[in-house]
């Protein structure tokens, strides 16, 4: 079994982990695990598939471990300060959010009545275009036009706020 799939598995792992040494380690660990299963007396009908599956899972586990290590140290000053005073609780952030919300609500209020109604039913009440069309007595295409008009108005408002 070792000679039969070794090179294929090594190439598979090397393409994924981008390091021949790391790929060799993954292949060796995969073989060790599969051989342990085989020595326990459990039959392995598809050793190639089991080797590939084991190697893939080992690489995923390694990637996850590396991701955890790559995160910043929780004791860093910037991170500790951010935890102690989240941006969303800062007075200037609260003020900006309130201004933003008021501008969007004013934009929605300024829409024509039918347009505003279709938009609110869709975005805030979660109704489908078909349900809105039936409720308002208009076509689905008209509902779509109303919603598009409202979305474009809100987008224009957000663009103005960014500048």
From TrEMBL:
Which ranges carry the RNA polymerase sigma-70 region domain? 2-66
An example GO BP is: DNA-templated transcription initiation
Matching SUPFAM superfamilies: Sigma2 domain of RNA polymerase sigma factors, Sigma3 and sigma4 domains of RNA polymerase sigma factors
Describe the location of the RNA polymerase sigma factor 70 region 4 type domain by residue ranges.
Answer: 102-154
Similarity comment = Belongs to the sigma-70 factor family. ECF subfamily.
Q: Which Pfam families match?
A: Sigma70_r2, Sigma70_r4_2
Name of this protein: RNA polymerase subunit sigma
């Amino acid at each position: 079994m070792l000679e039969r799939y070794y090179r294929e598995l090594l190439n598979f792992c090397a393409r994924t982990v981008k390091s021949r040494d790391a790929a060799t380690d993954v292949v060796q660990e995969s073989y060790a695990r599969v051989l342990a299963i085989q020595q326990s007396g459990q039959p392995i009908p598809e050793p190639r598939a089991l080797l590939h599956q084991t190697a893939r899972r080992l690489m995923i586990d390694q990637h996850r471990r590396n991701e955890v290590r790559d995160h910043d140290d929780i004791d860093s000053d910037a991170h500790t300060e951010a935890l102690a005073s989240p941006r969303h609780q800062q007075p200037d952030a609260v003020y900006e959010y309130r201004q933003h919300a008021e501008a969007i609500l004013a934009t929605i209020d300024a829409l024509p009545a039918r347009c505003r109604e279709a938009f609110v039913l869709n975005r805030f009440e979660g109704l489908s275009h078909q349900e809105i069309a039936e409720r308002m007595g208009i076509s689905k295409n008209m509902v779509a036009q109303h919603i598009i008009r409202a979305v474009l108005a809100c987008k224009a408002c957000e663009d103005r706020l960014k500048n």
